[in-house]
Structure formats: structure tokens, C-alpha cells
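Hi, here's the filled form for the chain we discussed.

Project: internal
Contact: R.S.
Residues: 129
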Amino acid sequence: MLSVTPVYLAAAVALYSCMTFAIIAQRRKRQISLGDGRQKDFARIIRGHANFAEYAPLTLLAITMAELGGVPAVVLHASGVMLILGRILHGYWFFYRPEGLKCRVAGMVLTLFALWTASTAAVLVALAS
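And the returned structure, exactly as it came back:
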């Protein structure tokens, strides 16, 4: 039974939902029902949301596989925390801080470390059994 992964899944769903509602609010404000209306700032916001949808599921799958394989909880929590913090920082850049790259870069680094940590741990446990 999974006990760690659902915590980070719930956090990811909450974060993704907040991003979704922000996109919806921007669509209403800008009166754009489909696409980005050729507005670069809105295209950036949409891309941040899509980036979350690309990385979070794969990383959560890696964490799930690691947990099912018996990887220690500390590794699972480290991966989960890195994923959530990484997605928060990365999303913050896309939604609020387009002039600097520090949040975006830090967010991507944390997300990739989460993905690599969980997937490597899952493979190592699988090879050991």
C-alpha cells in the first residue's frame, strides 16, 4: 500500500488546480477562449501550466514505482519535496516573474533532481531484487 506518494499527488493536484484557475481567470479577463490570443505574456503563462502537466506526472510515476519497490521513505519524501518546491518556483516564474530566470532555473533543477532521484532509486531496488 502506498503511503508517501499520495501526499505529493495531493499537493501536485492542488498546485495544478490553482494554476488552472489562474489560467481560466486570465482567459475571462482577456476574453480568449482558445489559444493565447497572440499575447506573449499569456502564451508564457499557458506554457508554465503545460510544463507542469509534462513533468509532474512522470515524476509522480517514478516516485510511485520507487515506493512500490520498497525505496526508503526518506528518499521518497526528498523526491516529493523537490518536485513540489520545484514546480512552485517554476510556476511562479511563468506566472509572476518574467524578467528573471532564477526561479525558473531553480524550479527545473529541483524537478529534474526529483525525477532522477526517484527513478534511479526505483531501478536500483529493482536490480537488487
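Let me know if anything looks off before we file it.
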